[in-house]
Every structure is written in structure tokens, then in C-alpha cells.
Amino acid sequence: MKLAIDILLGIVCVALILVVLLQSGKSAGLSGAIGGASEHLIGKTKARGLDALLGKITVALAVLFMILTLTAAFFV
Predict the structure, then answer these.
(1) What is d(CA 12, CA 71) in angstroms, rounded to the nearest whole number?
(2) What does each C-alpha distance from 72 to 5, 28, 50, 59 come to in angstroms?
(3) Contact, 75 vs 5, CB < 8 A?
(4) What is the C-alpha to C-alpha distance for residues 44 and 12, in angstroms, rounded to an integer?
(5) Are 16 and 62 in contact (CB under 8 A)?
(6) In tens digits, what is the pLDDT along the chain, a chain of 76 residues?
(7) Alpha helices in the chain, H assignment, sequence order
């Protein structure tokens, strides 16, 4: 049982790292000035929808990470 929780915790950790890295930054620095033209041509709604989805996935993975971490701590 402990091994299964540890493996699942590792998978959730890697998934959480990947989802956080896929999200766009909130600062509109130089990259925001350069990417502004492409957003204007392509449209911002698709990017906002993807960011919202990634945000929801991040919250779900973070909650799962906390539950698995507490569960793994009890099996030590």
C-alpha cells in the first residue's frame, strides 16, 4: 500500500511541476510586448481558456498532492 501511494505521489509531483511550467506568466514584461502582436492576430480567448483550464488542473493536482502527502506520512 505504501509503495502504491509513493508511486502515485511521484506521478502527481511530476504532473504538478509540468502544469505549473506550462502556465503563462502574469507579468507583462518584454515578452508581453513582443507577443502582443501575435495575440492580437490569433485572439486572446483561446489563451485565456487554456490558462483557466491549467489553473483548475493545478488546483486539483495540488489538493491531491496534499492528500497523498498526508496519507504517506501516516504509513511511515
Answers:
(1) 14
(2) 6, 40, 32, 20
(3) yes
(4) 30
(5) yes
(6) 999 999 999 999 999 999 999 998 876 555 555 555 555 555 556 667 889 999 999 999 999 999 999 999 998 8
(7) 2-22, 30-42, 44-74
Round to whole Å and give the CA distance between 16 and 61: 6
CA distance 2 to 8: 10
Gap between the Cα atoms of 57 and 55, Å rounded: 5
Q: The C-alpha cell of 32 is what?
A: 508581453
Residue 49: how many CB atoms within 10 A of its CB? Answer: 10
Tell me if 19 sits within 8 A of 58, measured CB to CB: yes
User: Helices 44-74 and 2-22: crossing angle, nearest 10°?
Assistant: 160
Q: Tell the residue number behind the cell numbers 504538478, with chain if given.
A: 16
